[in-house]
Specification:
There is one protein chain. The protein is of the alpha+beta class and 347 residues long. The chain folds into two domains: 45-225, D-amino Acid Aminotransferase, Chain A, domain 1, CATH 3.30.470.30; 228-343, Beta Barrel (OB fold (Dihydrolipoamide Acetyltransferase, E2P)), CATH 2.40.50. 14% of the residues lie in helices and 29% in strands. Strands 3, 4, 5, 6, 7 and 8 form a six-stranded mixed beta sheet that branches. Strands 11, 12, 13, 14, 15 and 16 form a six-stranded antiparallel beta sheet that branches. A four-stranded mixed beta sheet has the order 1-10-9-2, with helices on one face. A hairpin with a 2-residue loop joins strand 12 (247-256) and strand 13.
Length: 347
């Protein structure tokens, strides 16, 4: 049986949302709206503190791969944030989706691997997929669904989140363990964030209950982190004669439109085996034209291809990451997740 996630609050602290009424199964399921091939995801805007008020609901911030599960008349498709078909990488999730009651649907959520304490572990997810560029299928991954964008011939993106959540909870009632409902709670955002941080979670997501589903970073969804973690492009490395693997630090960049912006380096978080793999791979990507304007006799520049997940504590005044630590590589097909410098806090 799959592991279950820890709840943000105890049952006696705040009630979870529940469907107000079940769907009317006698209602004809007519194809009123054509099923879209893909819906660009709604993205959460980074904020330093959670919002207040009854209009906001909160969830755990999952540390995994953002996916859309399409349940279609011809079968199931699992699509990454960047638009790639990864159905074959998550067979257990696909099989669970086929067993959901109801007709056609598009579920928005995150694939994660849970540790023994019910926390999402990005490194474990990567290992279950065989690492970057691996061909392995993950049988351990669990899909936490947090939105329903299409159901039984109806496009739900124009309806408010509270309605979509009620329909989602009804759809997932009795679902196989490989697809679980991402717990939604209402309460004090500061208390929820404190609880999340004390449990070692990455943070929380705040969502406005009355808003439709809008693609992009609109501010309808907010992310508040305990420890910041983002994806950055590796654009080279600093050679070292003393560090095992020959890498002293990795050179990192964020995205600014079609350009790259240097955000500093990271020299912790990877072991000798990681360093050897990184150097071997980056050496194959060597280039004489660096993606960012840097100079140094010990610097080796690489084509912007490898994406690293980096944990850090904030930003310095000159725009570099503070206390950065390497967490692992993301797949090249997940390049849509590379940090957008427009998200960087100002001041």
């Amino acid at each position: 049986m799959s592991r279950r996630a820890k709840p943000l609050l105890r049952d006696d602290q705040v009630a979870k949302s529940r469907p107000e009424r079940p769907r009317d199964r006698a209602q004809p399921r007519l194809p009123f709206d054509p099923m879209p091939e893909r819906i660009e995801p709604c993205l959460a805007l980074l904020k330093p503190a959670p919002p207040n008020g009854p209009d906001w609901a909160f969830e755990v911030k999952w540390d995994g791969y953002r996916l859309a599960v399409h349940i279609e008349p011809e079968g199931v498709r699992i699509i990454t944030r960047g638009g790639h078909d990864w159905t074959h990488r998550f067979p257990a999730i696909a099989e669970a989706a086929r067993k959901l009651r109801g007709g056609t649907a598009i579920l928005d959520g995150e694939a994660v691997v849970l540790d023994t304490d019910g926390r999402s572990d990005f490194g474990a997810l990567q290992r279950s997929l065989g690492g970057r560029g691996g061909k392995r299928s993950s049988t351990e991954a669990v899909f936490f669904a947090f939105d329903l964008l299409y159901s039984d011939g109806h496009d739900l993106t124009g309806t408010e989140l509270s309605v979509r959540r009620h329909l989602l909870e009804d759809l997932l009632d009795g679902a196989p363990d490989a697809i679980q409902l991402s717990e939604e709670v209402q309460g004090d955002g500061a208390e929820l964030l404190e609880n999340a941080c004390s449990m070692g979670l990455e943070g929380i997501i705040a969502k406005h209950r009355d808003r439709p589903y809008r693609s992009g970073r609109t501010g309808d969804w907010l992310k508040i982190k305990c420890v910041q973690s983002e994806s950055f492009m590796i654009v080279g490395y600093e050679q070292s004669t003393v560090a095992r693997g020959g890498i002293g630090s990795l050179l990192l960049a964020g995205r600014n439109g079609h350009d790259w912006v240097y955000v500093g380096s990271v020299g912790t978080g990877f072991n000798a085996k990681d360093a050897e793999y990184l150097r071997r791979t980056l050496d194959k990507l060597r280039t004489g034209q660096p993606a960012v304007p840097l100079k140094g006799k010990n610097l080796v520049f690489a084509q912007p291809t490898l994406i690293a997940e980096i944990e850090f504590r904030g930003w310095t005044h000159d725009g570099s990451l503070r206390h950065a630590s390497y967490k692992g590589l993301r797949d090249v097909q997940d390049n849509a997740a590379v940090f957008d410098m427009k998200e960087k806090p100002t001041g």
